[in-house]
Amino acid sequence: MSLTNFAIIESTLREGEQFVNAFFSTAEKIQIATLLDAFGVEYLELTSPLASPESYNDCVTIARLGLNAKILTHTRCNLEDAKKAVDTGVAGVDVVIGTSSYLREFSHGRTIDQILDVAQEVVAYLLSQGVETRFSTEDSLRSDVDDIIRVYQAVCELGVHRVGIADTVGVGTPRQIYDLVACLRRELTCDIEFHGHNDSGCAIANAYAALEAGATHIDTSVLGIGERNGITPLGGLVARLYATDPALVKKYHLPLIRNLDSLVARLVQVDIPFNNYITGFASFTHKAGIHAKAVLNNPATYEILRPEDFGLTRYIHVAHRLTGWNAVKGRAEQLGLGLDDQQLKFLTNEIKTMADHGRLTLDDVDALLYDAANNVGD
Ligand code: HCA
Ligand code: CU
User: Which of 132, 185, 278, 358 is most exposed by smallest CB count within 10 Å?
Assistant: First the structure.
């Protein structure tokens, strides 16, 4: 398995630009690229230079920024596109062609033999230009495995750096992805990339399964933005890997996830979902009294992610009827109020009774605690 040795191909500036709300100016692309580079992703994938004149210029500009991350662009698998991609000065080119019967019939109309020919032609050209080369099949999960292995073997023999599988429609399950990657791992000597859409909620689990089976590169985007509901989110993949072992992601600057999620959410005009991995507003909030008590004693009881490792803090919610006196005590201590256990237990019952009659705020609880503290000795 390659959990301990993998690279992220960050595609916010390619797949992410295909999100319905995305429009990134050149300055915004530079801002995103620079922040992703500071976070430490190994690759940045940019929109095809064929897409528009500005897309071409943006490839040139970002390739010249001198970032640590390798700059890739992404094109269809034909010689004309590949040449234009090389002209931009990027370090690598990701080419893709549809191999499922759906795409062969309704998109480009080519047979597998024709795909084989064009794949070899384009890969040979790119390698001759000295750029890192990836060949991928779109809709790999609904393609015939023997077909794709035949094409991958041909480009591997030419020396392609990576082949990619793409779950373009988000149909794959972790077990399917594991089996497919494991099969390719046995057949091929080159690196293997996984690109997974999230239509049925498996994008993170599928990326993880791909790594377990020997994939070496995973595509992500910030907040998972992309076509339809997007792909594997960067923060979610990092959370998944960290939950297995924080050492797996120690090469990245984790506190920047919050900056990345906030920046991209603002630029594409969405809120960060409340239940987002790491950065959702509820991600490190504890509520029920039993949870709060244990977390106050030892956060590991109910936290697999340590908020401080991501530059964040936990929050114990006290103003509700599920609260417990340990949580109320914790709040009193935060406020510097010296209330004894008996008082705190009494106040906890007061809070519960008040909360039975309507929504409480933290201010309501604080007022009660201050009142009790001020009345001491009266
Ligand atoms: C696309 C399709 C793609 C390509 C993935 C890849 C997909 O071009 O928009 O290059 O590996 O999901 O199949 O994003
Ligand atoms: Cu995609």
Answer: 358
